[in-house]
Amino acid sequence: MQRKRLLSILGLAAVLAAAPALAQTRDYPSERGSVQVTTLLTGLEHPWALAFLPDQQSLLVTERAGRLRLATLHGELSEPIGGVPAVYARGQGGLLDVALSPDFASDRWVYLSYAEAGDGQYAGTAVGRGRLSADNRRLEDFEVIFRQLPKLSSGLHFGSRLVFDRDGYLFIVLGENNQRPTAQDLDKLQGKVVRLHPDGRVPRDNPFVGRPGARPEIWSYGHRNQQGAALNPWTGQLWTHEHGPRGGDEINLPQAGKNYGWPLATHGVNYSFLPIPEARGQTLAGTEAPHYVWEKSPAISGMAFYDGARFPAWRGNLFIGALVGQALIRLELRGDRVVHEERLLEQLDERIRDVRQGPDGYLYVLTDAGDGQLLRLALQPQ
């Protein structure tokens, strides 16, 4: 009897040792009640983006060093998924955003944006897609569908985020590779929002199709370093945000063919505190003013509208991660207008890289660190 009991205890210990660590939960104050933060995963190396799979229990997570992993809401993490392209993992470069095809349940396409090396010393943003194998271990038939040309980055300002709209078009938001004037050059893909068919073809109704000296992929231009994008679930409008220099982080609602100003119009100054050489003011005729602007840069990354039923007090809000600001920014909206801002999770002391609404109505965020975390957020009303 004692031997059987000992074996039972040892067996239970082995199961517990093999099981994921119990999730840690902490509470932080907010204007709407207590924000309950549960740590689901640790040990991620500078995670950049996440995308939920249709089973609603697993998700894909990118790590900037070039790894794509499958994680579960139970705290399990796979070995790196095969078939991911080589990335330029220097400076801000590496494996960046991940998005699923709108028809993923039938076609299994997974889209990745990443920094890609060129023939020389420079790199640019690329986007490709591969089919996730049935066992979720490999991207098969990977193909590049877009390359930012020319390649001009030495490690800075790649962007980027991927968003499908209601009509199935793919929007790619890009940085200007820290080459300011290129954001205004229509023959270059730096500092642009790009619109494509899912296979990389250019839609015929893109605003610069047929215009000499202009890239037909371009939807809008005059952007700096865009690291957030999301589709407004109530209007279908694409929202993006971008880093300013020292000051001037901004939200835009990109319209076809419009110029969003950088570097001719900006609310920021150079990191040296000197003016941006090309800037002519905070606004400029012929360019679009920011929809919302931060005079002091929180260094924004990731964007998610909340339209879930689980937390009614958050419904209709927009959530944005802050890197330097080390917070999750909550924006209350009235229609498209921002009427109030709150900084959440400042006590965490973490750089928030990405935020997404999960299919279960919780918010999920990634922290940008060598020991990055996947966190689940819940709101306990007052």
What can you tell me about this protein's structure?
Helix content is 5%, strand content 42%. It is mainly beta and 382 residues long. It has a single domain, classed as 6 Propeller (Neuraminidase), CATH 2.120.10. Strands 1-2-24-23-22 form a five-stranded antiparallel beta sheet, with no helix packed on it. The protein has a four-stranded antiparallel beta sheet with strand order 6-7-8-9, with no helix packed on it. The protein has a four-stranded antiparallel beta sheet with strand order 10-11-12-13, with no helix packed on it. Strand 14 and strand 15 form a beta hairpin. The N terminus is likely disordered.
Describe the SSE topology:
Elements: H1 2-18, E1 24-30, E2 33-44, E3 47-52, E4 58-63, E5 67-72, E6 95-100, H2 104-107, E7 109-117, E8 123-132, E9 139-147, E10 159-164, E11 170-174, E12 192-196, E13 218-221, E14 225-231, E15 238-243, E16 249-252, E17 292-294, E18 300-305, E19 317-322, E20 327-334, E21 337-344, E22 352-357, E23 363-367, E24 372-381
Antiparallel strand pairs: 1-2, 2-24, 3-4, 4-5, 6-7, 7-8, 8-9, 10-11, 11-12, 12-13, 14-15, 15-16, 16-17, 18-19, 19-20, 20-21, 22-23, 23-24
Q: Determine the structural class based on helices, strands and strand pairing.
A: mainly beta
Order of H and E elements: HEEEEEEHEEEEEEEEEEEEEEEEEE
Biggest sheet details: 5 strands, antiparallel
Q: What integer value in Å does the Rg equal? A: 21 Å
| Total domain modules | 1
